[in-house]
Amino acid sequence: MSRISINTTQHVALSYExxxxxxxxxxxxxxxxxxxxxxxxxxxxTDKMGITMGDVGTFIFYLPIMFYSLICEVVFDGQxxxxxxxxxxxxxxxxxxxxxNNYFMRWVFRxxxxxxxxxxxxxxxxxxxxxxxRFGDMAANTTVITLRKREKLNEIIAPKVxxxxxxxxxxxxxxxxADIITMKKVFNYALKRTNYSLIDETSDRVxxxxxxxxxxxxxxxxxxxxxDYQYLMSDYE
Length: 237
What we know:
single chain; mainly alpha; 2 domains; two-stranded antiparallel sheet; 12 helices; elongated
């Protein structure tokens, strides 16, 4: 799988693993079950129960299907139910949390990328670039990453945590090995040069990305996040 490097507004590079085409197709297939279930419900209401909806009623009834992906990604921070199961997520490539405009733009392009071409165009475009993007993602400045846990860390910034360790921030599980390695490099660089403002910026960025509200000092927070990640990725659970 290709890796995606995103520069934050604090000039810190974060690395993510792009979601595979297979994972994205799988997520779409899972979401399609919702469309099927909704259509079956319409059949039950109109055919089995004999309720006439008319053109306007039918249009209104199918609105949830039309806006399903957009609503889910806005409400669930870049994930539909299919994406949740497949453990993939839409993120912004601009180093800031994705906004409604980002999600809306990629939703608009679904008509061309997916619906009009049965997903063929989206698949070709994703395979052709190294950022895991279809045309909708390019227009929206987004991409789709995997949230699946990877193998053991090769590099860490904290010693091995004990089996009875208590996790402080469960949100650390959203990070990847590459994120932790990047944090190590930035952390060590800042300490060697006593650049505590860089440590503060890195801490603030991690809190923003993980949506953590904490008053814990920056250095302590970063060390805690790493320990939490190590424990959550270990075999203790």
